[in-house]
């Protein structure tokens, strides 16, 4: 899935149930789910694909490194 433009507020709906074939029933998942405070969704943007084509590999690595540092600082 690619986004043309991200909305100001993006909601995620998590499927927190799984089917248990042994008991032939659904069961609730209690696994921990976490994500960074600043979520980098560049790879889901159509603009990101254009950036890949325009910039050379070194420039793209610099951008990805900057995004990673910003995400780590936002924790």
Quick overview:
This protein has 75 residues and is α+β, with helices and mostly antiparallel strands. Helix content is 35%, strand content 11%. It contains 2 helices and 2 strands; from the N terminus they run E-E-H-H.
Description:
- This protein is α+β, with helices and mostly antiparallel strands and 75 residues long.
- The chain has a domain at 41-75.
- The protein is built from two helices and two strands.
- It has helices at 46-54, 57-73; strands at residues 17-20, 25-28.
- It has a two-stranded antiparallel ribbon.
Please specify the SSE layout and strand pairing.
Blueprint: E1 17-20, E2 25-28, H1 46-54, H2 57-73
Antiparallel strand pairs: 1-2
What distinguishing features does this structure have?
75 residues, alpha+beta, two-stranded antiparallel sheet, 2 helices, 11% strand
């Amino acid at each position: 899935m690619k986004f043309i433009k991200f909305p100001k507020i993006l909601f995620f709906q998590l499927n927190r149930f799984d089917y248990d074939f042994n008991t032939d029933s659904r069961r609730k998942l209690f696994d921990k789910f976490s994500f960074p405070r600043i979520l980098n969704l560049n790879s889901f943007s159509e603009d990101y694909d254009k950036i890949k084509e325009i910039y050379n590999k070194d420039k793209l690595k610099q951008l990805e490194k900057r995004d990673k540092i910003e995400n780590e600082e936002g924790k």
